[in-house]
Amino acid sequence: MKILIKNGLVLDMVGNPEKKDVLIENDRIIRIESKIEDTVDEVIDASNKAVLPGLVNCHNHVAMSLFRGYSDDLELQDWLNKAIWPVEDNLNEEDILNSSKLGCIEMLKSGTTTFCDMYIIMESVAEAIEETGIRAIIGRSVIFDGKEADKRLQEAENLYINYNNKAEGRIKVNIALHAPYSCPPATVKKGITLSKKHNMDIHIHLSETEKENNDIEKEYGVSPTEYLNQLGLFERRCILAHCVHLSDNDLEILKEKDIGISHNPISNLKLASGIADIIKYKKLGLTVGLGTDGSGSTNTLDMFEEMKVASYLQKVLHKKASCINAKEILEMATIEGAKVLGLEKEIGSIEVGKKADIILIDLLKPHLQPV
Ligand SMILES: [Zn+2]
Q1: pTM metric for this prediction
Q2: Which residues contact 321 (CB under 8 A, 6 or more apart)?
Q3: Residues with a beta carbon under 5 angstroms from ion ligand 1
Q4: Helix or strand holding residue 152 (H, E)
Q5: What separation in Å is there between the alpha carbon of 321 and the centre of ligand 1?
Q6: At what angle do helices 185-197 and 146-163 cross, to 10 degrees?
Q7: N- to C-terminal Cα distance for the chain?
């Protein structure tokens, strides 16, 4: 199966935007040239369209699409304890399947072709991924201690065994430890052991709120980053969601490690968590991508909204309009996000040999003119 995308303005995330043709065979990009003539199965006329790599959403709970607009106006701990966790317990496989499909469709329709997800009943999430055609890294969320944690860890391992590399390789499975405040030391250690056993990355929420930092400090006498570091978590490759409140010492620890950060600005604003200083993180050499978080805390899964908010927040935080530009933000939503997920050899840019995860944006729209 060959598809030729003709006459588009290609933003390949490697060079400058240029009018080019892109030839796809099966699921790979095989040629990118100024004019391609070939016998193909389908020609897509991309005149007046921008051709971009599919956007990468580094942190999501896609089945939470069901919670869009449910219990707005609460801070994180109240939102989790009073609103979300009590109803989550009542979700069944059908609920998760339907809400995941809704979320996957929303992402695909708004340009996202890959996401990273942690939640419950992930078999239903996998089914939605398979059916909608999106790409994802998924993990069964692990929380609590003792038998409760063991049950979830077993489900996490089963998910790996049954779903890693499924859906033509579009599904990868990692270990999702929920957060330092919901995973006591024994659970974190078991998660690390499981991660080593199957060579899985670890996805975890980290320093999302000041309250989290204070609670961990009270309980263990250290910051959440130090807590996880002492347990050996960063010996593994990690995807760290949020990282709103990192100290200089935390950053010293993280900059030596194989980690990527998912910056989720709208969720951080909605739950009043704070503003992550991603410019500081990037200057230290940390890899930062963008995520939406689940619809319960962000209301839409639209990465263009995240890009805009992420950019403007840094400008206001640093009181400097030039501190970050559109190109850097678009990199965070594409190639840098792919690096956060460890998928940069496959996706995140339009290059020969990479997966043909490509989106077209119709530029003949009032809000996109002039370009
Ligand atoms: Zn989250």
Answers
A1: 0.98
A2: 315
A3: 293
A4: helix 146-163
A5: 29
A6: 20
A7: 33
Please give the distance, rounded to the nearest whole angstrom, from the Cα atom of residue 168 to the centre of ligand 1. Answer: 27
C-alpha span between 70 and 86 (Å, rounded) = 13
Report the distance separating Cα 229 and Cα 182, nearest Å: 16
| Token digits of residue 215 | 């609670």
- Cα 61 to ligand 1 centre (Å): 6
Dihedral sign for Cα 38, 44, 50, 52, please. Answer: negative
Distance 257 CA to ligand 1 centre (A): 22
Measure the CA–CA gap between 234 and 195, rounded to whole angstroms. 11
* Per-residue b or e along 7-18, where b marks 16 or more CB atoms closer than 10 Å to that residue's CB: bbbbbbbeeebe
- Indicate the burial class of 76 (C-beta count within 10 angstroms; 0-12, 13-18, 19 or more): buried
The string of pLDDT tens digits covering residues 142-171 is: 999 999 999 999 999 999 999 999 999 999
Reported as type and span, the H/E element at residue 308 is helix 303-317
Counting beta carbons within 10 angstroms of the beta carbon of residue 357, is it exposed (0 to 12), middle (13 to 18) or buried (19 or more)?
A: buried
Question: Which are the contacts of 369, defined by CB distance < 8 A and separation ≥ 6?
Answer: 363
What pLDDT, on a 0 to 100 scale, did the predictor assign at position 70?
86
User: Which amino acid is it at 235?
Assistant: E
